[in-house]
Write a structure and sequence with these properties.
By secondary structure, this protein is α+β, with helices and mostly antiparallel strands. The protein has five helices and 18 strands. The radius of gyration is 22 Å and the shape is flat. The structure holds calcium ion (CA) (2 copies).
Length: 314
């Protein structure tokens, strides 16, 4: 079995090398987070943008689109910051508001995956209350070729601090029928941590943004940001062990096996997940086998080593 796995590994690495250009065209993904999803007039927020699976990229531009008349102040030049080194970087151009543009060019063989850019925005004192969406459009190129990558949006909520509602809401969650023994649930907001009652219900909580944390010893934790302004039900996926990329056990009852390597290979080379884990964030957490925060060929390698150890012991 060890020899077969070694052969498969060698073949797959060869195929990944051969298909690198295709992977760059099909698998690049942009991710964004905000330092806070709920803001009040005068607040500052930092939008952080990161990139995955764009190994062949040689230059990147990010176009930030936001409401610069009703919600956010026009950012100054220093409010946009690239997080990359050894690059030729054009200034963050705010003259095209509401589309602030940031552009960087790269030398040969520069890896631009990971944290890319931070943009700091300030909420106007007379901002319109309600949802406001910030969209980031990436323009990624490999020489003359464009690398396909979807844009990314964050919907922030501007609240009126003088009109805080006294209304309280329930958050309940639905769990799979089996395989959840010993699972713990917590709802966190700042330093507050709430526990559910026996009916899987967080009762009478203040509205706002929370992080729902689902954890179980030996399994990859699931976290989900929930914006509570009404009674809310959240579907929880069955927790799996790290490396169980396809979300299923094999015929020996092992959570991780060659099927998971195949599933991870498809994701890395073609950019889609053919397994049973439908939540994209949870899939990436499970597939991050070496736990460095990114899903790439190193996780494939780490999974291979782990599976080889299991089989050679068995
Ligand atoms: Ca599996
Ligand atoms: Ca990783």
């Amino acid at each position: 079995m060890k020899k077969i796995l070694s052969t498969i590994m060698a073949l797959v690495i060869l195929m990944l090398l051969l298909s690198a250009a295709y992977a760059a065209n099909g698998g690049a993904s942009l991710y964004g987070t905000a330092s806070s999803m709920t803001l009040a007039p005068g607040d500052e927020v930092t939008i952080s943008v990161a990139l995955e699976n764009a190994a062949e990229a040689k230059s990147v531009s990010l176009v930030f689109d936001y409401d610069n008349t009703g919600v956010f102040e026009n950012p100054a030049k220093g409010d946009g910051r690239w997080l990359l080194f050894n690059t030729t970087i054009a200034a963050f151009d705010t003259s095209k508001v509401p589309c602030g543009t940031a552009a960087a060019a790269y030398g040969e063989a520069t890896n631009i995956n990971g944290s890319l850019f931070n943009l700091k925005l300030r909420v106007r004192e007379n901002a319109v209350f309600g949802k406001s969406t910030i969209t980031v459009v990436p323009i990624i190129r490999n020489g003359t070729q464009t690398v396909a990558c979807e844009s990314m949006s964050l919907a922030l909520t501007i609240v009126d601090p003088s009109a805080q509602s006294d209304e309280k809401w329930d958050l309940s969650f639905q769990v799979p029928g089996t395989g959840m023994e010993g699972t713990e649930f917590a709802l966190k907001s700042g330093t507050t941590e709430l526990k559910p009652d026996a009916d899987n219900l967080f009762r009478q909580i203040d509205g706002g943004n929370y992080t729902l944390c689902v954890s179980r010893d030996g399994f990859v934790s699931y976290t989900k940001e929930v914006d509570i302004d009404k009674n809310t039900v959240v579907n929880i996926p069955r927790l799996v062990k790290r490396g169980n990329v396809n979300g299923a056990s094999d015929y020996l009852g092992q959570e991780t096996g060659v099927e998971d390597m195949a599933c991870l290979y498809t994701y890395l080379s073609k950019g889609f997940n053919e397994g049973q884990i439908s939540d994209g964030d949870y899939f990436r957490a499970v597939a991050d086998v070496n736990e460095d925060g990114w899903v790439n060929i190193l996780d494939y390698q780490a999974l291979y080593v782990e599976i080889q150890t299991v089989y050679s012991e068995g």
